[in-house]
Design brief:
This protein is an alpha/beta fold. Helix content is 40%, strand content 24%.
């Protein structure tokens, strides 16, 4: 039986798990290939879970957790790896979730991203958003883009993170990684300060509020490449999310700024593979060409999806395009592809046509 939280984290990694969950009156559980799996048969009571979590926090972190009722932090375990932790209260009990962070971020093509995403990394200015729901790999894509820029550009990169997850060394470019709470007080403060630090590229782990979004847009408008994440299910949903953060009287100005600054949006989700254990990434990519820019400026967000459907020459593709490719390449089952499709009936017909054509060719 595991004795402390470090043992549970080691057991999670040995089982190939990506996440560890500690909840009161339940066994510790690891997420393995997308499914929760108990690590042992014994339930941990609330007192024991609290002891396990508090043992890996500093005095300052414990105080912040008691004050704010939730805490993001990073934890390094020797011979096991780094983890992002979130401690929180649930029905008055302290509970936590931990996510494994590989030592080195993968390259963009290893993740399955299109060349368009690598092209975003060459831009000298503008805003690029990585969107998806919790657990969709946004942080990993952000890190892969950071790696790409470090390896290929003589650029000054500043990251603003809560907490720092992947760590980087200086390469062809230079990098400064700043963590909320230990290196800077807030995302907006760090973004404003970066503009006085001769920065070329700003990587922001998340835009959480009006001040962060406003500061990111200003930086993107004034000659800097800004890459950040949003918690939305689609590329077009990210446009609504940004605008809706602001009160109605500010929205026209934000829409104008967004139309001028946005370079592209990558939306992604991780789905169970059909060909092997693990998960595969399905993506949607929006690039801002003149037609998309005009639609954004005129607040015609509903037209953006149609422009994506016909924008392959500009490097765009829809989620359903990605699902079709993954299903016909054997990476996804038809069932999973249709469950995640924006237009499942259309995708179903496309897949049936493809299978019929394959059968004809094999006769």
């Amino acid at each position: 039986m595991a004795r402390d939280i470090l043992d549970y984290l080691a057991a999670t990694r040995e089982a190939g798990g990506s996440d560890l969950h500690l909840a009161a009156n339940a066994p510790p559980a690891a997420r393995i290939d997308g499914r929760l799996t108990p690590l042992e048969d014994v339930d941990l009571d609330g007192k024991r879970v609290r002891e396990l979590i508090m043992a890996v926090l500093t005095d300052a972190q414990r105080a912040k957790l008691e004050k704010d009722w939730e805490l993001d932090f990073a934890l390094a375990v020797e011979n096991v790896g780094r983890f992002r932790g979130n401690a929180h209260f649930a029905r008055t009990h302290v509970e936590a979730a931990f996510r494994y962070i590989p030592d080195t971020p993968p390259e963009l093509d290893e993740l399955g991203h299109s060349p368009t995403v690598a092209d975003f990394c060459t831009a000298s200015q503008g805003l690029v958003l990585v969107t998806g729901m919790t657990g969709s790999g946004k942080t990993t894509t952000l890190a892969a883009m950071t790696r790409r820029i470090l390896e290929t550009r003589s650029a000054m990169i500043i990251t603003v993170e809560d907490p720092i997850e992947y760590t980087f060394e200086h390469q062809f470019g230079l990098i400064k990684q700043r963590q909320i709470g230990s290196d800077t007080h807030s995302f907006p403060a760090a973004l404003r300060a970066a503009l006085r630090q001769d920065v070329d590229v700003l990587v922001v782990s998340e835009m959480r509020d009006q001040d962060s979004v406003a500061a990111a847009l200003t930086a993107a408008e004034t000659g800097h490449l800004v890459i950040s994440t949003l918690h939305t299910r689609s590329a077009t949903g990210a446009l609504d999310r940004i605008v809706d953060i602001f009160p109605a009287q500010q929205q026209p100005q934000i829409i104008t700024q967004l139309a001028g600054a946005l370079l592209g949006i990558i939306s992604q989700r991780l789905l169970p593979r059909a060909d092997a254990p693990g998960r595969v990434m399905a993506t949607e990519v929006l690039t801002v060409n003149p037609g998309v820019q005009s639609a954004i400026r005129d607040h015609r967000f509903e037209q953006v999806f149609s422009l994506m459907q016909v924008g392959k020459s500009s490097g765009m593709h829809t989620l359903d395009d990605s699902l079709f490719h993954l299903a016909t390449s054997g990476y996804l089952s038809m069932e999973i592809a249709l469950q995640n499709a924006r237009h499942p009936d259309t995708l179903h017909e496309q897949l049936k046509d493809w299978h019929r054509e394959q059968a004809r060719l094999q006769r």
